[in-house]
Amino acid sequence: MTVLKTSLRNFFAHKGRMALSAIAVLLSVAFVCGTLVFTDTTNSTFDKLFAATSPDVTVSPKNALKGGDVQKTRTPPTLPASRVEQLKKLPGVTHSVGQTDSTSVTVVDRNDERVGPSNGGPTITTNWKETEQRISKVVSGHIPRGPTEAMVDSDTADKKHLKLGDDLRLIAIPGDFHVKIVGITEFQVTNPGAAIVYLTDATMQQRVIGVRNAYTSIALTAKPGVSNEQLKKTVIAEMGPGFKVQTKAELVDESRDQIGSFLDIMKYAMLGFAGIAVLVGIFLIVNTFSMLVAQRTREIGLMRAIGSSRMQINGSVLIEALLLGVVGSVLGVLGGIGLAVGLMKIMAGAGLELDTSELTVKPATPIVGLSIGIVVTVISAYIPARRAGKVSPMAALRESGMPADAKSGRIRGAIGVLLTAAGAAALVMAAGADKAADGSAFLGLGVLLTLIGFIVIGPLLAGFVVRALAAVVLRIFGPVGRMAERNALRNPRRTGATGSALMIGLALVACLSVVGSSMVASASDELDKSVGADFIIAGEQGNLIQPKIAERLAAVPGLDHVTHFKEAGDTRITTPDGKTTTTDRVVASNPTFADDLRTPTVSGKLVDSYGEGAMSVNEGFAKDHKVKMGDTLTVAFQHGRSAKLKVAAITSDDTAFNKGAMYINITTLERYVPADQIPMNTMMFASAKDGQESAAYAALKKELKHDPQIQVKDQTDYKEMMKDQIGGLLNLIYGLLALAIIVAILGVVNTLALSVVERTREIGLMRAIGLSRRQMRRMIRLESVVIALFGALLGLGLGMAWGITAQKLLALEGLKTLDIPWPTIIIVFIGSAVVGLVAALAPAFRAGRMNILKAIATD
């Protein structure tokens, strides 16, 4: 009981000193809980949507497109409309409804602006059917009744300022057509971000999928007392095995799996950043309790002298840590819920709409948050607690502060050197690996070992690095600068731990900066070397180029040629040894592709693969299947017939673009695949006639003015696009890493604040012998700056080593240019100095305002 009282007294006596550590626990736990609440809410929202929209049994073609897949051919797989009545007559069926859905239609308003979500959400066109009333309610106008009428959802109408009577243009594979909005419907369940346009059955069939009297699927409702499994068996018995028949549970699982992979990646990535913040928080907590124990050495010695055991002293410190963990974790769980709401608002801007009224907080979430916060805090305080338990009664006779253990320091240094050396060796092995898969394992090991090594060796490095930094940064400030240097060196273990906390976040920033910059530089260099075409034409958000648009582009004035680029889909290739392999890497294009995208070969010339009955294979395929020049392969095309094609070229795998592709002439694809099953262009290339580049570019843009789903870019624009995409991703990652850096800044603030308290008497004496308040504040700020620069120097150096090694692995995948973003590195280094200044404001202010006599009288 006495131990508990002592712990409570010390905790509340030092509550100000504990506050920053509690904030670190709060932020770390909040990020973990916020991620869990956000992903649970997202999963729950989609589960409810899938459950509400899925019929008891769904019948679709065997090769039906999966949810979210884009229709690649002119005609999607369908079922004849007669099947609806056939299935309606089956015992156990209450309703049989034909469904026609498509995500390959672009919908624009009268200003040619996209009506669908602008940040990645799908635009779904579908036929209005009675089953829609389960999830939608018509709130204005009426349902579509004719070929020129449409109904849209209220969310889309509000965001895009649409109203009854507005004209919409639908850009579909069979051709464009106009409709008028005659109704607006409101979802009765949360719509996570899709835009829905309802049309009549006939309009969907004729104008969208291009097949009359057909549906993409049939929805069945079971009679009361008939299970979905029973109904599925009845359907299979009636229709045979050539169809895809799914129960509601199976369809929900399939839909959940399709969205779940993306959500899982997002979840684990965010938890990874939360883990980094927890790791940085550990340094702050260890520092806090180490300094508190050091400051209470005499007090602990007196407690030992009057009979307190080691276990009681140890327990007292751990109870303080437990209280800190509980307070920080409880606040962190509440903060996590608030963070989840904020994430939902942010994701709304990215196209994922979630209703905060459906916030899902599972019992496991607060349990996980509290467990992480409390366990991490108690474990972090264990070493300081153990050190406190070793304080002898004779310490009551000494000045406050614990003597450094030279032996343990030497052992720690030796371990740190060994770990760092092992990590460096792993990085060297990764950089020299022949395969990216092998090298990545060494890279991960090297990153882990060098990080731990630098953390362990931090106090040893502090002595050398801080002196070097001080010679450059502090000496110009005279005696005040030298005092700041001595203060930073007074406790190398504390300086090392504080700098290491900042080092972790900045190492990741530097690593990602090097990797991102190298990716951009490599892609730009590869673009210069490989792309001979003047213009690259591609769809946005996964859109393909419709046949009519492709035909129009071929007629644009000023162009020398236009090259088609079609992915043949799943293709079965039988090699001379009789083995069959399925691949989706067969690409059909025009012979001009050999000039538009210069692909290196190890045998033959790429242009030869566009000859009659010819093709190319990639180097890896040739090695794996012992294929050589002149061999004849049997190629079975998806939706088409088989062809005998001779290998006329073997392309090198040493390329960044279309690595592993196999090329055939587009006429070969057209000869063996029916016209209505020919895939659409994934992208296209074009080159202008000599001297007409600017005019041709303007003509292409003008031709695509009314087709916002297709973009044309010259090589300069394409490079900028790649730079923006990679830069946007890096900015997102930097934003997430900011949490760890904020926690590290709190560590600097806490270290300085506790250091000021520890040196209260010393500060009073310095003020008494003439040190002014301004000089005192400057000394504290300079000490903070040098600690921050110490952490930045270690972090940036370590991060650049990681980034350079990662680039060597990327070089095996074709990204060969190393580019170190020195402006970013320099800005981060200077920014660290600013961080040090800001972190020192409060401690420096407190030191400057100390009463001199009271400070001198302090024990």
TrEMBL record:
Subcellular location: Cell membrane
InterPro entries named in the record: ABC3_permease_C, MacB_PCD, Macrolide_Exporter_MacB
Keywords: Cell membrane, Membrane, Transmembrane, Transmembrane helix
Pfam families: FtsX, MacB_PCD
Boundaries of every ABC3 transporter permease C-terminal domain copy: 273-393, 736-852
Chain ranges of the MacB-like periplasmic core domain: 19-235, 498-698
TM segment ranges: 268-294, 315-344, 364-385, 411-433, 445-478, 499-521, 732-757, 782-804, 824-845
Keyword Membrane (UniProt): yes
Keyword Cell membrane: yes
Membrane topology annotation: Multi-pass membrane protein
A GO cellular component entry from the record: plasma membrane
Protein family membership: Belongs to the ABC-4 integral membrane protein family.
PANTHER family for the chain: ABC TRANSPORTER PERMEASE YTRF, MEMBRANE COMPONENT OF TRANSPORTER-RELATED
Protein name: FtsX-like permease family protein
Source organism of the structure: Streptomyces palmae
